[in-house]
Amino acid sequence: MVKEKNRFHCCRHPGLAHQAVVRLLIFSLTWLVLTDFDRASWVIGLPAILFAVGLSLVLAPAARWPLSAKGASLFIPFFLWQSTLGGIDVMRRALAPRLSINPGMLPYVTFLPEGGPRILFVNTISLLPGTLSAQLQGNTVTIHTIDTTLPTLLNIRNLELRVAALFALRPRRGEA
Questions:
Q1: Which SS3 state, helix, strand or coil, does residue 102 take?
Q2: Is the model's pTM score more than 0.70?
Protein backbone atom coordinates (compact mmCIF):
# COMPACT_ATOMS: atom_id res chain seq x y z
CA MET A 1 0.00 0.00 0.00
CA VAL A 2 1.43 3.36 -1.05
CA LYS A 3 0.90 6.37 1.18
CA GLU A 4 -0.03 9.63 -0.45
CA LYS A 5 2.50 12.38 0.17
CA ASN A 6 1.09 15.47 1.77
CA ARG A 7 2.57 18.53 0.09
CA PHE A 8 1.99 20.64 3.17
CA HIS A 9 3.48 18.27 5.72
CA CYS A 10 5.66 20.13 8.23
CA CYS A 11 8.40 17.52 8.01
CA ARG A 12 9.35 18.76 4.55
CA HIS A 13 11.06 21.57 6.45
CA PRO A 14 11.67 20.13 9.94
CA GLY A 15 13.48 23.25 11.15
CA LEU A 16 10.51 25.41 10.18
CA ALA A 17 8.16 23.74 12.65
CA HIS A 18 10.72 24.11 15.43
CA GLN A 19 11.29 27.78 14.57
CA ALA A 20 7.53 28.41 14.53
CA VAL A 21 7.08 26.85 17.98
CA VAL A 22 10.03 28.76 19.45
CA ARG A 23 8.76 32.05 18.03
CA LEU A 24 5.22 31.30 19.19
CA LEU A 25 6.52 30.79 22.73
CA ILE A 26 8.69 33.90 22.69
CA PHE A 27 5.96 36.12 21.24
CA SER A 28 3.37 34.69 23.65
CA LEU A 29 5.61 35.29 26.64
CA THR A 30 6.27 38.84 25.44
CA TRP A 31 2.52 39.39 25.06
CA LEU A 32 1.90 38.10 28.58
CA VAL A 33 4.46 40.47 30.05
CA LEU A 34 3.26 43.46 28.03
CA THR A 35 -0.38 42.90 29.03
CA ASP A 36 0.37 42.12 32.67
CA PHE A 37 -1.03 38.57 32.27
CA ASP A 38 -4.52 39.85 31.39
CA ARG A 39 -6.48 36.89 29.98
CA ALA A 40 -8.95 39.15 28.17
CA SER A 41 -6.09 40.52 26.05
CA TRP A 42 -5.80 37.19 24.21
CA VAL A 43 -8.78 38.16 22.04
CA ILE A 44 -6.44 40.55 20.28
CA GLY A 45 -3.18 38.88 21.29
CA LEU A 46 -3.67 35.44 19.78
CA PRO A 47 -4.39 36.62 16.23
CA ALA A 48 -1.58 39.20 16.51
CA ILE A 49 0.88 36.56 17.74
CA LEU A 50 -0.05 34.08 15.01
CA PHE A 51 0.30 36.82 12.40
CA ALA A 52 3.67 37.88 13.88
CA VAL A 53 4.95 34.28 13.86
CA GLY A 54 3.95 33.80 10.22
CA LEU A 55 5.39 37.15 9.17
CA SER A 56 8.64 36.55 11.07
CA LEU A 57 9.09 33.18 9.37
CA VAL A 58 8.76 34.87 5.98
CA LEU A 59 10.87 37.96 6.75
CA ALA A 60 13.46 36.30 9.01
CA PRO A 61 13.72 32.62 8.13
CA ALA A 62 15.41 30.10 10.39
CA ALA A 63 18.50 31.46 12.00
CA ARG A 64 21.78 30.59 10.38
CA TRP A 65 23.39 30.92 13.79
CA PRO A 66 21.37 29.01 16.41
CA LEU A 67 21.68 30.22 19.98
CA SER A 68 23.34 28.17 22.69
CA ALA A 69 21.35 27.79 25.92
CA LYS A 70 24.58 27.71 27.93
CA GLY A 71 25.89 30.77 26.10
CA ALA A 72 22.60 32.60 26.71
CA SER A 73 22.70 31.79 30.42
CA LEU A 74 26.13 33.45 30.57
CA PHE A 75 25.38 36.32 28.17
CA ILE A 76 22.12 37.60 29.69
CA PRO A 77 23.50 38.40 33.19
CA PHE A 78 26.63 39.89 31.58
CA PHE A 79 24.46 42.03 29.29
CA LEU A 80 22.29 43.26 32.16
CA TRP A 81 25.29 44.00 34.39
CA GLN A 82 27.21 45.85 31.66
CA SER A 83 24.10 47.86 30.73
CA THR A 84 23.75 48.89 34.37
CA LEU A 85 27.42 49.81 34.63
CA GLY A 86 27.18 51.80 31.40
CA GLY A 87 24.20 53.76 32.73
CA ILE A 88 25.95 54.43 36.05
CA ASP A 89 29.10 55.56 34.24
CA VAL A 90 27.15 58.02 32.09
CA MET A 91 25.28 59.34 35.14
CA ARG A 92 28.50 59.69 37.16
CA ARG A 93 30.24 61.60 34.39
CA ALA A 94 27.22 63.83 33.72
CA LEU A 95 26.84 64.77 37.39
CA ALA A 96 30.55 65.23 38.10
CA PRO A 97 31.61 68.83 38.72
CA ARG A 98 34.51 68.36 36.30
CA LEU A 99 33.87 66.08 33.36
CA SER A 100 36.65 63.48 33.28
CA ILE A 101 37.02 62.42 29.69
CA ASN A 102 39.89 61.49 27.43
CA PRO A 103 38.03 60.49 24.22
CA GLY A 104 39.46 58.53 21.35
CA MET A 105 38.73 56.13 18.51
CA LEU A 106 39.93 52.54 18.67
CA PRO A 107 39.87 49.96 15.85
CA TYR A 108 38.94 46.39 16.78
CA VAL A 109 39.14 43.40 14.43
CA THR A 110 36.51 40.78 15.26
CA PHE A 111 36.57 37.09 14.42
CA LEU A 112 32.76 36.89 14.55
CA PRO A 113 31.13 35.96 11.24
CA GLU A 114 28.88 38.31 9.31
CA GLY A 115 25.22 38.25 10.22
CA GLY A 116 23.60 37.85 13.61
CA PRO A 117 26.73 37.32 15.73
CA ARG A 118 28.57 40.36 14.35
CA ILE A 119 25.49 42.59 14.42
CA LEU A 120 24.71 41.70 18.03
CA PHE A 121 28.35 42.30 18.98
CA VAL A 122 28.53 45.73 17.33
CA ASN A 123 25.21 46.86 18.82
CA THR A 124 26.08 45.60 22.29
CA ILE A 125 29.40 47.49 22.34
CA SER A 126 27.44 50.70 22.87
CA LEU A 127 26.07 49.36 26.16
CA LEU A 128 29.51 48.89 27.66
CA PRO A 129 30.71 51.69 29.95
CA GLY A 130 32.18 54.57 27.95
CA THR A 131 31.94 52.99 24.49
CA LEU A 132 30.02 53.49 21.28
CA SER A 133 30.23 51.60 17.98
CA ALA A 134 31.09 54.28 15.46
CA GLN A 135 31.66 52.27 12.28
CA LEU A 136 31.70 48.71 10.99
CA GLN A 137 33.73 48.05 7.87
CA GLY A 138 34.26 44.39 7.03
CA ASN A 139 35.38 42.74 10.24
CA THR A 140 36.82 45.95 11.75
CA VAL A 141 34.74 47.91 14.25
CA THR A 142 35.75 51.48 15.04
CA ILE A 143 34.88 52.18 18.66
CA HIS A 144 34.53 55.62 20.20
CA THR A 145 35.59 55.57 23.82
CA ILE A 146 34.96 58.37 26.29
CA ASP A 147 38.22 57.62 28.10
CA THR A 148 41.19 55.97 26.44
CA THR A 149 42.67 55.14 29.85
CA LEU A 150 39.86 52.62 30.45
CA PRO A 151 40.51 48.95 29.55
CA THR A 152 38.18 49.31 26.56
CA LEU A 153 39.80 46.73 24.26
CA LEU A 154 39.87 44.15 27.06
CA ASN A 155 36.15 44.77 27.71
CA ILE A 156 35.40 44.52 23.98
CA ARG A 157 37.30 41.22 23.75
CA ASN A 158 35.35 39.86 26.73
CA LEU A 159 32.09 40.89 25.03
CA GLU A 160 33.17 39.27 21.76
CA LEU A 161 33.89 35.96 23.49
CA ARG A 162 30.50 36.05 25.23
CA VAL A 163 28.70 36.74 21.94
CA ALA A 164 30.67 33.87 20.38
CA ALA A 165 29.55 31.57 23.22
CA LEU A 166 25.95 32.73 22.74
CA PHE A 167 26.11 31.48 19.15
CA ALA A 168 28.26 28.42 20.04
CA LEU A 169 31.17 29.79 18.00
CA ARG A 170 34.82 29.32 18.84
CA PRO A 171 37.67 31.56 17.78
CA ARG A 172 40.05 29.97 15.31
CA ARG A 173 43.63 29.37 16.37
CA GLY A 174 45.44 32.68 16.81
CA GLU A 175 42.19 34.61 17.38
CA ALA A 176 41.70 33.82 21.07
A1: strand
A2: no
